[in-house]
Prior knowledge:
This protein has helices at residues 42-50, 92-102, 107-121, 136-149, 166-183, 194-200, 218-223, 228-233; strands spanning 4-13, 16-26, 31-35, 57-62, 65-66, 77-80, 154-158, 186-190, 203-208, 211-216. The protein is α/β, with parallel strands linked by helices. This is ABC transporter ATP-binding protein.
Amino acid sequence: xxxxxxxxxxxxxxxxxxxxxxxxxxxxxxxxxxxxxxGCGKSTLLRMIAGLExxxxxxxxxxxxxxxxxxPAERGIAMVxxxxxLYPHMTVAENMGFGLKxxxxxxxxxxxxxxxxxxILKLEPLLDRKPAALSGGQRQRVAIGRAITRGxxxxxxxxxxxxxxxxxxxxxxxxxxRLHREIGATMIYVTHDQVEAMTMADKIVVLRSGHxxxxxxxxxxxxxxxxxxxxxxxxxxx
Length: 238
Ligand code: ADP
Ligand code: MG
């Protein structure tokens, strides 16, 4: 199992520096949650780990590999987004197996991995449906299933539940937590939802304007926030 290590990560868009030298170690198997206000750099950081944004300077390691300049497909990660962009003309099973198919994996292996992901996410009865015939929660489950099928060492989630209604969010939260227990992969999860952060995280990273304000276990940050900003996000109101 692979952890993720960030060393002095800087990101500039043109003249504007938006990530100012972030150091972070996410341990193998850890569920790490990034929280912070809109625009603080959560998505940018995640996209650099995924290889979807160029890292201006610094180093990203996944397991033993320096992946700072590696292609996304070489990093051993899978990312789940807020909008789940399923292929409308493909069935659930085809959507989930598409990545492996593109990489030339044999049909029998794809079927077996799709089946396993469908079991984990209770998608078996829906495998022959098209996305249009699914609810929002079911579609997001397929997007997560697509990530599982690829068998990554590291899962990256960018606010995956923010398009779902409150009831479904609670259900999906439990489901992702169960997924983490079952497959034991390293997960980095971006949210602006305090409850999600508190209930799901082994470790919370509080970001503010492109730097890390504080890192800690949920109860440590709750009981002992370093400052008012952290307290405002996850601290106790006292
Ligand atoms: P968050 O996900 O925490 O809301 P983002 O990572 O999306 O924040 O954005 C961090 C900062 O980087 C913001 O100031 C945003 O405007 C800027 N930014 C993000 N993407 C781009 C881009 N492609 N070009 C220029 N600026 C960007
Ligand atoms: Mg974002």
